[in-house]
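Protocol step 4 of 5: obtain the predicted structure for the target chain.
Materials: sequence only (see below). No template structures provided, no constraints applied. The aim of this step is simply to have a reference model before the mutagenesis design in step 5. Sequence pasted as it appears in the construct record:
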Amino acid sequence: MLSPHRPRWHAGTMSILSLAHACIKTTSLEQTASFYCDALGMKKLFEFTRAGKPIGMYLKGENDSFIEVFLASEVASIDSRCLNHFCLETDDIKALHERVADNGYKPGDIKMGSDNSWQFWVKDPNGMDLEFHQYTPESAQFTGENVEVDW
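Step 4 output (structure tokens):
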């Protein structure tokens, strides 16, 4: 269910509007839902089922950000497939950091990234590295300036 202000298609043009979703595999839909919904505040939008049994779910964040989740046993295993991490944007990094910790996870410290965005990292229940950003007016994502990394 997309926001009403976002057009679903553009007649006569071809452009990428945004990342539609990131897809992750899990061994526990329940633990994954608890992390993303309870600790991060996303909403389960719908489930994927096979023969009436849940095998996955679609999670929704604000601004139509989506994460697709499937049980690892239900999808083809491709060893060369790699997802290093993905990053979710927040408008209150301190409150999110506290919420993640209050839900029993161990987030890293909040720090200013090389791109001038506040950030912290945590592992989800599947071992996936997640980065969280809170942009600033000086964030390279807005200024377009090159970033000299310090890691």
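Step 4 remarks: Residues 29-39 form the longest helix (11 residues). The chain has three helices and eight strands.
Proceed to step 5.
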